[in-house]
Write a structure and sequence with these properties.
disordered N terminus; alpha+beta; DNA binding; Transposase IS200-like domain-containing protein; Alpha-Beta Plaits; 2 domains; about 260 residues; four-stranded antiparallel beta sheet; Transposase_17_sf; Transposase_17
């Protein structure tokens, strides 16, 4: 099974404070055709077992993880430049387990994984929040109640298998962890595995940038305010079609008041 990396990450609007050491990545593995990746608690546990095993073997340090039903989020530090090999071994081993134990055959994961290089403190913090907040954004449960993420490992770092010190150093210690996760001042972050923002993420970005109330009222705002809001959406990567969909404003007007 061949894997390759591609993608870019967006975190805004705050400027980076300093550049992190190179080698931090946000990674997403998706089920083939969005198929379910975990059919039992045993599947989740087996994936985690492989994740820890191959991360250690390839000297990859885990920063954060979240296992959703049809995709997986990871934040890692790869100083050994072994990311591709690690993800290949992980995906291959788990696919064998999944097919054998659940009576399936064929590909389990998409033919490639998506990765985003993390280049700043602000992007790092936003990525970790995004990963841990996945269950809540999917309306499953709160991040603290979801059992299949590294959220709890940050509450008990003494027994954690993830590298917690980087985050704690940036936010000012373990005691600020839960407040950090609920602090919206870290800006908007959407994982971009491709150059185009997905439609389901466009509405998330729009609401976080403008707020639900202002977004719904954008059509009736004075021209200058409306133009500013539209430009913010375009600058965030929304296409003309996506801006039209989330605002209800026609593409002609959007084109008139914005530039790509």
């Amino acid at each position: 099974m061949a894997y390759q990396e591609d993608g870019e990450g967006i975190a805004m609007p705050r400027k980076p404070r300093r550049l992190l050491d190179t080698g931090y990545y946000h990674i997403v593995l998706k089920g083939s055709g969005n198929q379910i990746l975990f059919e039992s608690e045993g599947d989740y546990r087996k994936f985690l077992s492989y994740l820890y095993e191959f991360a250690a073997r390839h000297k990859l340090q885990l920063i954060a993880w979240c296992l959703m039903s049809n995709h997986v989020h990871l934040v890692v530090l790869d100083t050994a430049q072994a990311l591709s090999s690690c993800i290949h071994d992980l995906a291959t081993a788990y696919a064998v387990h999944f097919n054998r134990c659940n009576g399936h055959s064929g590909p389990v994961f998409d033919g490639r994984f998506h990765s985003v290089l993390i280049e700043s403190d602000e992007q790092f913090l936003s990525a970790v929040r995004y990963v841990h907040d996945n269950p809540q954004r999917a309306s499953i449960c709160s991040a603290s109640d979801y059992p299949w993420s590294s959220y709890g490992e940050y509450l008990h770092p003494e027994s954690s298998q993830v590298k917690t010190d980087v985050l704690f150093d940036l936010i000012g210690g373990k005691e600020r962890y839960e407040a950090f996760l609920s602090d919206d001042s870290y800006g908007v972050y959407v994982f971009r595995g491709t150059s185009r923002l997905k439609d389901e993420d466009a509405i998330i970005v729009a609401k976080q940038l403008l707020g639900s109330d202002e977004l719904s009222k954008l059509r009736s705002l004075p021209t200058e305010q409306r133009a500013h809001g539209l430009q913010l959406l375009r600058d965030a990567g929304l296409t003309l079609k996506q801006v039209e969909r989330v605002t209800g404003i026609g593409r002609g007007i959007i084109s008139r008041y914005t530039h790509a």
